[in-house]
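Journal club prep — side note

Before the paper discussion, L.F. wants everyone to see what a predicted structure for a comparable chain looks like in token form. Sequence:
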Amino acid sequence: MSYAAVARKDFQDGIRSKTLWVLMALFLVSVGGIAWLFTNGAGTSPASDLQVALLFAVSALPAILFLVPLTGLIVSIKSIVRERELGSIKIVLSLPHSRLEVLAGKLVGRSALLTAAILVGFIPGAVVLSTQFGAFPIYELIALTAMTILFGIAFVAVGLGVSALVSTETRATVLGVAAFVLFYAWGGIFNYINYRLELFSGDARLFILRFDLFTVFQDTLLALLSLRHSEIPNTSMVGFSQAVLRKPESVESITQPFYLQHWFAFIILAIWVAVPLAVGYWQFERTDL
């Protein structure tokens, strides 16, 4: 498989990056450090699996919100355009690799780098909490870790799409910074524009808000957790919050149309991965290198 060779080389080159090692250290300090703070002075009080999972989620939240998007973009945003500027992409393509295989290989390789960075922080944090409280919620921890990785892969896809789309590292950097800022600001921007122009309301507005990547992360995680915890309502976080505000006493009976149910977030996540890659590949394929 030609893309596997590209992925292997990309991972081997990337794992030696000082920047990646700094990010790994930040993951370890962030997740492991906060987990240790939770256990410091806590004694040996037992806790349920769900309580330990919740503590771990809180420990990992800063890393999920800031380090995962940052790492996903950093490992991918210059992965193709830098090789174009250096001319090494011509050497890669002179081997039996198509442009699609190069893009696919870089997605796999860069996603593996992101996964390594996440696991460096998550595994010690989970061990610290589980050892301290005498509970090891395997399913919940695997679900949280898996969805964090997929959440990060969406940013890898955005970064690769940008890297394949532009012709200079400067443009890639500018667009990468813009993507990072918009991740936090786009919901507020959309709500402001929508309020001023009165474009969408009701379920249509909630559906658009579902495309916020952190909301996608929460919804996919809820979907996995609901397989084991039946008390979790089958609705997106955006629909859940609106329903609770309208009628707090009916949390367990919330119903939503299929496009606002939490499982639909997997489709939205697939769109976030596929569309940037498709746009980047379209430009990459037609560009004269």
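L.F.'s comment for the group: The radius of gyration is 21 Å. Keep this in mind when we get to the figures.
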